[in-house]
Amino acid sequence: MEGYCVKCKGKCEIVNGKPVLMKAKGDKQRNAYKGECAKCKTTVFRILPSKK
Fold first, then answer.
1. What count of other Cβ atoms lies within 10 Å of the Cβ of residue 1?
2. Which residues contact 13 (CB under 8 A, 6 or more apart)?
3. DSSP-based three-state secondary structure for 21
4. Structural domain of 34
5. Torsional class of 41: left (φ above 0), alpha (ψ -120 to 50), beta (otherwise)
6. Within a domain: residue 52?
7. Domain tally, the chain
8. Which end of the chain is less packed: N or C, by CB atoms within 10 Å?
9. β-pair partners for 36
10. How deeply is 5 buried, as exposed, middle or buried, from its count of CB atoms within 10 A (0-12, 13-18, 19+)?
11. Domain-located, residue 42
12. Residue 26: helix, strand or coil by DSSP?
């Protein structure tokens, strides 16, 4: 899965990733994918679409 790395300033492949739940407005939760940038090992998030 790809995400945006702020440190590299570009798209990167997410390694060692896992699905997580993030806080959202109104005491709701958002699906996201958290891992590391393949190039610089910085933490990278990708917010996923909500499942209906």
1. 11
2. 1, 2, 37, 38
3. strand
4. 2-47
5. left
6. no
7. 1
8. C
9. 15, 43
10. buried
11. yes
12. helix
Q: Which of 9, 19, 5 lies closest to 47 in space, CA to CA?
A: 19
Amino acid at 11: K
pTM equals: 0.78
At 25, is the secondary structure helix, strand, or coil? helix
- Is 32:2 a contact under the CB 8 Å cutoff? no
For 50, phi then psi, to 5°, come to -70, 145
Name the nearest CA neighbour of 5 among 29, 51, 37: 37
pLDDT greater than 70 at residue 52: no
Taking CA atoms, 30 is separated from 8, 26, 27, 41, in Å, by 25, 11, 10, 24
